[in-house]
UniProtKB/TrEMBL annotation:
<protein>
    <submittedName>
        <fullName>Transcriptional activator protein NhaR</fullName>
    </submittedName>
</protein>
<dbReference type="GO" id="GO:0003700">
    <property type="term" value="F:DNA-binding transcription factor activity"/>
</dbReference>
<dbReference type="InterPro" id="IPR005119">
    <property type="entry name" value="LysR_subst-bd"/>
</dbReference>
<dbReference type="Pfam" id="PF03466">
    <property type="entry name" value="LysR_substrate"/>
</dbReference>
<keyword id="KW-0805">Transcription regulation</keyword>
<keyword id="KW-0238">DNA-binding</keyword>
<dbReference type="InterPro" id="IPR036390">
    <property type="entry name" value="WH_DNA-bd_sf"/>
</dbReference>
<feature type="domain" description="HTH lysR-type">
    <location>
        <begin position="4"/>
        <end position="61"/>
    </location>
</feature>
<keyword id="KW-0804">Transcription</keyword>
<dbReference type="InterPro" id="IPR000847">
    <property type="entry name" value="LysR_HTH_N"/>
</dbReference>
<dbReference type="Pfam" id="PF00126">
    <property type="entry name" value="HTH_1"/>
</dbReference>
<dbReference type="InterPro" id="IPR036388">
    <property type="entry name" value="WH-like_DNA-bd_sf"/>
</dbReference>
<dbReference type="GO" id="GO:0000976">
    <property type="term" value="F:transcription cis-regulatory region binding"/>
</dbReference>
<comment type="similarity">
    <text>Belongs to the LysR transcriptional regulatory family.</text>
</comment>
Amino acid sequence: MSRLNYHHLYYFWSVARIGNLTQAAKELHLSQSALSTQIKQLEHTINIELFERKGRTLALTDMGKRVQMYANDIFTKGEELSSFIHKGVISQTQHLSIGVLNTLSRNFIEEFINPLMSNDEVRFSLTAGRMDGLLNGLAEHELDLVLTNKPIGLEHYDQLWQSQLVSRQPLAIVGPADKKTRGQFPSGYTDAQWVLPAKTSAIRDSFNALCARWQYQPKIKAEADDMAMLRLLARDSGALSVLPSVVVKDEIEQGLLVEYQRLPDAFEHFYAITAQRKFVPDILKSLLAKTC
């Protein structure tokens, strides 16, 4: 393969980062045709198609996304070197862009990012969304990390991703203090009403397994696939619920809810998903090393 032209790579990186050829050409002070020619020369040199046209927009190919990962590492380090040359020091402030599944417990998120809150050398941003959009954000280097309570399924599987279990929280039956029974499930739960996670959730699967074991038929008042909504229902409905205690830790501390009992060998699992890359920010390494 011919020697890589880093000017061409930089032009590719700029277009990939900005997402628009016209805007990138404007920022680089080049004509659109000249910029397009430079990128075509890079594609010819490495014998890889980096972009494909979708209507009037350019989209990265799968190989283009991988090349962007390397280019991002190269030019991020280059910007640090430039700062060191001109200022004599490398900036100590690090920034993390964290994506969170939009149904994830806000209390868990707060616990996870707590080390960042007390670190004056770190800034971070949080973006909530669906799994597809979050993984796209990782692939486009808009996000450094995605937090989810769902493992990567076959529909999302790609060697690009790295998934790490960062926490597991025991599942418990929670409800109002004045309705707590002394007996173990299902004793004392005959007339109980329930607000439960959606049927598609792993938490619901665990509860259904417990009910099947004891041939218990729950009286379901409401269902929700969002932890924030389930937390409100558990707090305000007077019904019982099944969720990790961390979700309602504030309500438990205030005496609004109590933990009746934990489900045997049942947990909600939380994962951190990152994109495979050569350069990983130190603060991200540190954050993941402190989990589980």
